Each structure stands twice: as C-alpha cells, then as structure tokens.
Amino acid sequence: MDSIPSQDDVRSTRPNMSWTMNMDNLLIETLVEQANLGNKVDKSFKALAYDAAVRAISLAFRVDCTYNNITIHLKTIKKNLSTISNILNSSGFSWNDLTKTIDAEPKVWAEYIQAHPEAGKFRRKAINNYDQLAIVCGNDQVTGARAFTAREALRQKVTTSMTPNNIQTMHEPAYGELDEGENAGDSTL
C-alpha cells in the first residue's frame, strides 16, 4: 500500500527556486518588517515571520515558495553578506553610500579576488539593501522610533548621532531610486 508523502517529503523533492533581485528585495523588506513586529529573537526568526515571507513571495511573484526556499536562500544571503563583510574589513576597501558599492583601487581588488575568488561578484555590484541586511542576517533588532520598513529605508537615509545628553535622529532625502544594476534579473545577493 502506497503511503501519502508528508509535507516535508514534498518540500524536499521540489527544485530550488530561482531568485530575482525583486524577490530578494521583497524577502528582505518582509523580514525587516517581521523583525520590527518582534518576530525575530536573537539571530532567528519565528515561524510567523517565515510564514509571512512565504506568503509575500508566493503572492507577489505567483510562485510556489516554501519555508525551505526561504531558509535555503537566507543561508545564501548570509554567506554573501559574510563575504561582503570580510571585504569591507580588509585594508583598502570602503563602502560608498552613494553608489551602494564597495570601493577600492583596481590593484587592491585584483589582489583580493586572486586570494578570494568568491569576492569577485561584488566588485562592481550595487548592494542596495545592505543596511537592511544587518537586521535580517545579524543580531540587530529595531524597535520603537528607530523602526522602519525596508521600503521606507530606501526612501530616506537615516543618520543617527548620539551625544551623552541626547539621541537625535535626522532624516535626509535619498539620492535617487534603486539602481537595478547591470543584471536586473540576478538576485541582489
């Protein structure tokens, strides 16, 4: 007698999903919103947050997105963010907030890529949602007056300055719309 496959069996036989930049942006935006709602504890999201991400991706892009698709893609995003962090922590590299790219002299890039080939894909790539990735991938929690969605963050640059007597937040207009990059169909990370 044939048994009915469990949900886990069905999930494990589905092929990996192809992620686009727009899917990445929605996933990150949704998870930032879920963190704002308190659905992230330390470095882990609650099941409710994953459910919201599955629904958002499935509805917006008319795909059969699963919990496993989200968690597998988050591992990829975290791995890429780790690569980006390693680049930025290396001598000669800096973050360009205007272009949302990693800057360095060509010789510095060439030497780094020779030693770390996986870093090459970030040489000229805009990382438009870099600020939000700290919330999604890290231990950062955003609450209260500092909480904002990824969409709001793209509309404004938030600069926080702290002094011993006060904490002041200033909002400045963003420099422009998102740059879809050379490979608009590629995943952001």
TrEMBL record:
Q: Residue limits of the Myb/SANT-like domain? A: 18-112
| InterPro entries (UniProt xref) | Myb/SANT-like_dom (IPR024752)
Q: Which domain of life is it from?
A: Eukaryota
Short name of any one Pfam family annotated for the protein: Myb_DNA-bind_3
Stretch list, region Disordered: 166-189
What protein am I looking at? L10-interacting MYB domain-containing protein-like
